[in-house]
Amino acid sequence: MSTQTTDPLIGENLARLRGEISQKTLAKEMSDRGFKWASSTVFNIEHGERSLRLVEALELAKLLKVELSDFFDIPADVGPARKVQDLYLEVARHWTVVKDSVSSLLEARGRLQSAVNDCLSRAPESDRPNTLRRAADFGQGQLDSATVDSAVTRGHTDYSASPGWKRINADTSEG
């Protein structure tokens, strides 16, 4: 799990575990133990806006007379939904990488095409086949236009036809 999903979970558990102890009292107790805490610190942790450091969690566990693992408990009714949320965020992150990669590939392909056209336009007409062959040999013939076009078309078709593509695309372009 990432801090994006664990911080709110730890915060919810801290709020539950402190029970009747006020945020102000908890902050004072932690301050008395050498931590620079205020009631706003407790509030921020409980709302997932600040991470709880391990050394703080160890001291809180002693103070609240709970196990360290209690801060990481996932309520049974929230577990599956949280897992779906985590996986959705993971897919969205990967989709962003794919979109950026395809975009970079298309830009590089355009620059390659321009360079090939420029190279051919500068070569004497009688030497153009040899010029193109030398350029392809330099690239070890790994990329030909048909291979690039096929991969881009197939990738675009596969991904743009997938059910969640538009929603993931919209979600990742907003943030």
Automatic annotation (TrEMBL):
What CDD domains has UniProt attached to this entry? HTH_XRE
A GO molecular function held by the record: DNA binding
Region named Disordered: 155-175
Which segments constitute the HTH cro/C1-type domain? Answer: 40-71
Q: Output the InterPro entries linked to this UniProt entry.
A: Cro/C1-type_HTH, Lambda_DNA-bd_dom_sf
Entry protein name: HTH cro/C1-type domain-containing protein
